[in-house]
Amino acid sequence: MPMHQEKSRIPGRARPFEKSQKPTPLWLKALLGRELAPSREEYTAVNQALWVGDYNMDGLVNWMFEADAGKRKAQIQQAIQCGPDRVKDCPQEIQAFFKTLQPAPTWIDFDLIEEGIRFTHSSGLAAGYVLRDLALMGGYLLSGFNQSLIMTGALNKGTSRRIAETGKWWIDCTEPHGLRPQGPGYQSTLNVRLVHSLVRRGLNKRADWDHSHWALPLSQIDMVATYLGFSVVMLVGLRKLGFPILPRESTAVIHLWSYACWLMGVEEQWLVKSEAEGFVLLNHTYMTQSKPDENSKELAEALSKEPLERTYPRFERAQRKLSYHLHLGMSRYFLGREKMQQLGFKDQGIPWLTLASNVPRPAIYCAGHFLPGMRPHQQRRGRKAQLAMLTAMFGDEDHGLIAPDRNHPAHIDTGN
């Protein structure tokens, strides 16, 4: 069936509307100010957005392929790094794309973004545990979300490198002033956005991509679910670890990732202003996802073994095993026994090691966060731990973002 006819249908990956209409507990309804389940209009909107990509970047990529794709890609990347004004004879198409980013929308509050960054530093390794062992591992339960990963080779290529590259983007976005134009987070986000568009274009043309079931690769809703993982899921996970989060801190984290993912190409209609709004939208995105399958299990197993490939300066073998058990236990703590079994893990009982490590976390966090004069020290110590984890993931490899090889749908032969 032609693509334009498919777009009028709900894709096969989506769950039926009737299954989304579960009653909301009274306490949660009072907290959210509404039912958690989507209305018919909301359900239709999220499913139709499965057919929508990134209009501005996809247009730029289409121009790139019109002639000398390697040269034009290099010009785009130079504009990302230095700004279009620094590109010699910068093509009008590149200038037009960057005009969609500048000036920044009036709703963006860079001071609030910096508050979100400082809070992220304060959370230290706990943020990494939540994002890896809850958001990422839990995301593998959603097989509709996984399909683009699978078809770019995620099942049989270096998991450690892929996870490290995601961590690098997160670190760049949470650098002080990192999301300012030409800041590290700004550059990384636009580079990832370019790769996403190239993947979307490549997979969209493949005969084995089933549009009737999967809709568009890396759609708006897939990107929305990802950004809510870095914001809403992180906040929920930190609370489960016992961290008290102030309302202003919650708002700052949401604002930080709303801007980062606006830069990533998420349309403004899908950006949220509060954690409650984000929690509701996250639930709505779940309605577009299929249940876990065999690929979900393979992705989960590969992620669980990633710590066994890390590099440590001392006692490497012992630290690898300790990290492996801590991360697996964290996933068990966050997701529960039933969901871990859905991902193919055998029941290993109560994760005592993880629970024991979690006991002092809230007290240590509160002491550093609320005692007078301690918070800057906590932020420095937390950031140092986050950077050390990233270094362990990369090992001796370059701390860079994805560089698609010839077998990757985002690869472009530059002639080098």
Classify the secondary structure makeup into a structural class: mainly alpha
In one word, what is the shape? Answer: globular
Oligomer: single chain
The structural domain count equals: 1
Q: State the helix count.
A: 20
Determine the N-to-C terminus distance: 39 Å
Give the averaged pLDDT, no decimals: 90
Element pattern in H and E: HHHHHHHHHHHHHHHHHHHH
Helix content: 55-70%
Taking all Cα atoms into account, the compactness measure Rg is 21 Å
Low-confidence stretches: none
Largest sheet: none
The count of β-strands is 0
Query: How big a fraction of the residues is strand?
Result: under 5%
How would you briefly describe this protein structure?
This protein has 416 residues and is mainly α. The chain has helices spanning 3-6, 26-32, 40-48, 55-64, 69-82, 92-99, 110-123, 125-139, 143-151, 159-173, 184-204, 211-214, 220-240, 247-263, 275-286, 294-305, 316-342, 352-358, 361-370, 375-394. The protein has one domain (39-394).
Labels describing this entry:
about 425 residues, 20 helices, mainly alpha
Task: Give your account of this protein's structure.
This protein is mainly alpha-helical and 416 residues long. The chain has one domain. 62% of the residues lie in helices and 0% in strands. It is built from 20 helices and no strands. The chain has helices spanning 3-6, 26-32, 40-48, 55-64, 69-82, 92-99, 110-123, 125-139, 143-151, 159-173, 184-204, 211-214, 220-240, 247-263, 275-286, 294-305, 316-342, 352-358, 361-370, 375-394. α10 packs across α11 (184-204) and α13 (220-240) packs across α15. The longest helix is centred in the C-terminal third of the chain and has 27 residues, at 316-342.
